[in-house]
Amino acid sequence: MSARTVDNPKVVSRDEWLAARKKLLVREKQLTRERDAIAAERRQLPWVKVEKNYVFDSPSGKKTLADLFDGRSQLIIYHFMFGPEWQEGCPSCSFNMDHTDGGLVHLGQRDVSFAAVSRAPLSKIQTFKKRMGWRFNWVSSNETDFNYDFHASFTPEQLAKGKVEYNYDLVEFPSAEAPGISVFYKDKAGNIFHTYSAYARGSENTINTYNYLDFVPKGRDEDRLPFTMSWLRHHDRYENGYLADADRPYWPKEVLERGTI
After folding, report:
1. Contact predicate 147/141, CB 8 Å
2. CA 57, CA 159: separation in Å to the nearest integer?
3. CB 179 within 8 A of CB 90
4. Distance of alpha carbon 34 from its chain centroid, rounded?
5. Are 235 and 98 in contact (CB under 8 A)?
6. What's the average pLDDT block by block, 10 residues per block, for the chain (261 residues)?
7. 142: which residues sit within 8 A by CB, 6+ positions away?
8. Predicted TM-score (pTM) of this structure
């Protein structure tokens, strides 16, 4: 079936529109129920005890993984693509984080803390965070195995093999850094458990701009782009598209070679 463009919409009467809308609503309700069922199944996944004592660099000094819970029992970590040699964070991860600050106070009311983790040194993280105007907790894992253990960063040796372990598969990946979300639980005895991780599009439902775009006639309008998020810029760079990292280490090399960005 060929896609209908917004330049040639099918215009009908209000009654015909309502009939079509109600037909789609049946499927939307099915999707909602299926999403609820998957969320329930997600909560029933078994847990893995975290045995390593990960220590991060934070603005207030060294912080352990336990410290990041900030007195709560649940912790969401966003694996933010920001390599040690990069001058700024990944635009796609930045897009995701632009949706985060407003939810922090509400997460806190449900016994949930949030932190972003990157391998970039803390000084670079703080500079970029200030530039972007964000408030969420963001720490550096540069001197730990955290990113590697949770498959959000890859060593030169791993990349040299051609495929890395990402999103629960061996895949080719264009960068040493990868996005994702990991979730942890801390019990009253102080034991920490890894309960869930999602990668690639698995964390997409946190990006509310996409949820809104899915409502409009053009949708995400990414079908003809070299890759889905190639339209993105840091929110302060849309006018001129300037990026501090001229080689754009967070974007696929083959796209850059084609000169389509």
Report:
1. yes
2. 26
3. yes
4. 22
5. yes
6. 63 96 97 96 97 97 98 98 96 96 96 98 97 97 95 96 95 94 98 97 92 91 88 86 80 68 52
7. 57, 84, 119, 120, 121, 122
8. 0.90
